[in-house]
Structure formats: C-alpha cells, structure tokens
Amino acid sequence: MDAFTLTLWVVRLAFLACLYLFFFVLLRALWRDLRTTVASAGTALGRLVVVASPGGQPKTGSSIPLDAITSIGRDVNNSITVEDGYASAEHALLTFRGRAWYLEDRDSTNGSFVNGQRVQGTVALGYGDELQFGQVRMRLERVRA
Predict the structure, then answer these.
(1) Do residues 68 and 96 make contact, with C-beta atoms less than 8 angstroms apart?
(2) Which of 55, 69, 138, 144 counts the most CB atoms within 10 A of its CB?
(3) What angle is formed at CA 29 by the lines to CA 43 and CA 39, rounded to 5 degrees?
(4) Closest CA relative to residue 70, chosen from 101, 88, 42, 95
(5) What are the CA-CA distances from residue 112 to residues 44, 72, 82, 86 (Å)?
(6) Contact 68/95 with Cβ under 8 angstroms?
C-alpha cells in the first residue's frame, strides 16, 4: 500500500469518527432536554393569588396555578373564569416565555391593568405584580416549593 492510499484511509476514518462523535453529542443533548422537560411537566410555572373579587368568583384569597398559556375572562372556556360585569368574555392571556411572564390584553372593553397601569398590547410581568381584570385583582407569585 502506498502513502497516498494510507493517508486517504486515515482521513476517511477520522471523518467517520468525527461524524459519530457529532451524532453522539447531539443525541446526548436531546436526551438531557427530554429528561428535563418530562421532570418539569407536572409542575406549575407560577400562580395567581386573588386579592379582591367582588363577584365572588374566583374566591378572595384563593391560589390558582398557572400553565404556560392561561386565558382569563368571563367565558367558561377560559382557564380562569372571572365573574365580573366589567370583564370581557376573552379578557386577557397570560403566557410564560423563556423565563418571564407576559400579559396580553385581548382587546377587552374595560382593559387590563398591571400595578394600576392600563396594558396596551403585551407587557412583561414580574413576580409580585398586581393584575386587574374588571374589578377582580390578582397577584402573580412564584410556586411554593
């Protein structure tokens, strides 16, 4: 076997080894991500604590666990149903993106408020912020450990 053929075989084997190493690293990263997702699937991402609810639904002092996408309004198809004459059927949408919560007003008649300020479009939230839909006020909090 001459030097050129030997070099060609070494390059081929090195390329094959790099290819297998790449696939191994890729599969390992996917496996870790899948395990992390499965482990956190049953846990709530946050909660809303009802500060004031003149209509009685939801009850004042109750804690409502939040999903990654939570709809709020008078309609029974919402994740959180609010009995208030000033709340719209599809009033607002709470979403968890990355590591932050966002509130989107769904063009409600009376608007949504965060810490007393009217929301225009989508707004980033922080834990401890007070949300108001109609006359119902809720506070965004972390999940208890």
Answers:
(1) yes
(2) 138
(3) 15
(4) 95
(5) 23, 10, 13, 10
(6) yes
Nearest to 93 by CA among 105, 83, 82, 81: 105
pLDDT tens sequence across 15-47: 999 999 999 999 999 999 888 877 766 677 889
Name residues whose C-beta falls within 8 Å of residue 100's C-beta, 6 or more positions apart in sequence: 124, 125
Taking CA atoms, 134 is separated from 52, 102, 110, in Å, by 11, 18, 7
Could you tell me how far CA 5 lies from the centroid of its own chain? 57
| More reliable by pLDDT, 55 or 66 | 66
Residue positions counted in the chain: 145
Burial of 83 by CB count in 10 Å (0-12 exposed, 13-18 middle, 19+ buried)? middle
Task: Give the pLDDT confidence of 63-112 residue by residue, as tens digits.
Answer: 999 988 999 999 999 999 998 888 899 999 999 998 899 999 998 888 99
